[in-house]
Amino acid sequence: MPEDWRWFGAHRPAQLTATPRYRATVARVLLGSLLRIVLVIVSVVLAMPAITWLSIATRLSLYQLAPLTLAVLVTGSVLIVVILAKWVRSMRNARAEALREELGGRVFGSPGMVLAAVEKYGRGRVEAGARGEMSTALLLELLLRIPGVTVYHGLQFPGNDDADVDHAVVFRNIVYLLDSKLYRWGQYEWSISGEKDLIVRSDGYGRGTANWMHVAAHGYQRLLGPQVEVVPMVLIHGRKVSVGRRSLSSRGVHMLTAGEAMERIGNTIHGALEIGKDNPAVRDALAGKLKAA
To answer: pTM here?
Structure first.
C-alpha cells in the first residue's frame, strides 16, 4: 500500500492550483446539481396536492393512496441521491483533470499504445497489455509528489519500430525504463534462453515469455551517455502475483511486482534528493524518443 512506502509519506500530494477553468467547471457542476435537486423537490411538493385531488376525484381515501405517496417520496429521495453521487463524481473528475493539467509539464506521451497492435498480437493479449500499462501510468502519477520527477509513456524501442518502451521515470541522472505486464496469479522469475531473457512461472507452468528490456536499456544507455544510470525493470500487475528468487536477469533487468517497484523507485529517488543536479539534456533526449499517439 502507498501509505507503507517511506517516500510516499515524506512528500505531500501534488498541489492543485484553482485555475479560472477549474473554478468555472466547479461552479457549472455545482449550479447544475442544485438546479436538478430543486427541480426534484418542487416536483415532489407539487405531487402532494395532485395526490389529494386524485383522492377527491376517485373518492379514494388518502390512506388508500398511501403507496402512491410513498412511491413519490422514495423516487424523489433516490433522484436526489443519484444527483449528489454524480456531483461528487464530476467534482472528482474535474479535480483530476485540473491536476493533470497542472502536472502536464512533467508527464509526456500516452500509455496504452499497445492497442494499435491488435492485428499482430491478438485482442486478448493486447488488451491485457494495455490494462497493465494504464495501471502503471496511474501509479507513476504518485511519483510526481517528488519534485523533479518526470514521467514518459510510449518511447521508441531501439532498433524496432513496431515495439516501444512502455514507460520511463527520470530524475536528474537516473532513468528507469519500465515494461508493464498483467499476469494471472502465480510466482514469476527470470530464465535464460540464448540471447533472450525469459519470464517464466516458478512452478514451470507454460513456455515463458521473451523479454528484451536489456536491449532497450543498452540502446538508451548509448543515447544518454555513461554519466546517466539506466535501470530496466519489468513491473508485474495482477491478483496474487509475486516474484521468485531470480528477480534479476543475467542481463541486469529487474523484475518486481508493481507495488515493490514503486517502493524501490520512490525510495531511491527520495534518497537522491540532495545528490547531483538537474539534467535537462536527459529529459530532452527522451522527449525526442516519444512515439506518436
So the answer is: 0.71
